[in-house]
Write a structure and sequence with these properties.
313 residues; alpha/beta; D-Maltodextrin-Binding Protein, domain 2; five-stranded mixed beta sheet; rod-shaped
Amino acid sequence: MKDEALFDKIDLHLIRVLNTVLTERSVSRAAIRLGMYQPAVSAALKRLRGLAGDPILVRSGAGMVPTDAGLRMIEPSASILKAAGVLFSDARGFDPATAEVTFRMAASDYLDPLFLPQLVAQIKSQAPRCQIEIMALSAQSDYRAHLAQGEVDIVIGNWSAPPEDLHMGRLFGDEVVCLVAKNHPAIRRKWDVANPASWLEAEHIAPSAMHPGAKGVIDEYLDKLGLTRNITVRCPHFGLMPSMVASSLLVMTTGRQYCERFAALLPVKILPSPIDFPRMMYYQLWHERTHTSKAAKWLRDRVKSVATALRKE
């Protein structure tokens, strides 16, 4: 019998009968477990024998035992039933305590340095069987394509104008400030809000561009004002920049929450920015592909709860 014709004769219920009969090694016990009448199970077993061209289950003394072919069917039939259970499980609901899915996130390290550690801890405590993969947002990463192709579930970062073709959830806004070393001249001289030339001329450190020609939210806003700051260091590792600031005359301009995490650890100080920047906004983005997914929604809720908790500290 050709595979196509064979598949037309098999349904999931028949596979369930097959697996139950083989594991119970009894038609009567299988009937009780399946909630079926015994003649109906016997009829299904007869169909299965005809499809397999094998008795599948034979008598041995007072009981029954699987044939060699029957033994080989136990594991594949169990796998089919398990896969069928998973097939629509996410559409019906998501139970983090028992789920075995992989969450894939792309995130910038411009976030609060406690954000990802606390997010991972929360996911693992509530969904211990789930896997987590975190990708960096870099000049080489096309996060739109990654979202569309299912390579990531959410992207977390800050944008002055988030992409309109993606779903967006606001996480928090933050005041833009400057981080400098404790011996930086600006601490004594102060920057002139009315004339920010001294701030613009200072040596600035900034993150590397996300893609060729791209500018971060700070320089995008300065462009609108017709201003340009003196960036002398660009670094792809945002988490290392505060240490570079602590041992130099560099100025790092970013969100207050991020700077406050390092103010107690390094010889640095937070100063008000002489430019009145809009608040730095952080979002999570996701594709229509995962918009109705129960697992993805659960993940987005965890992201939001961690962001909210950190803002309350």
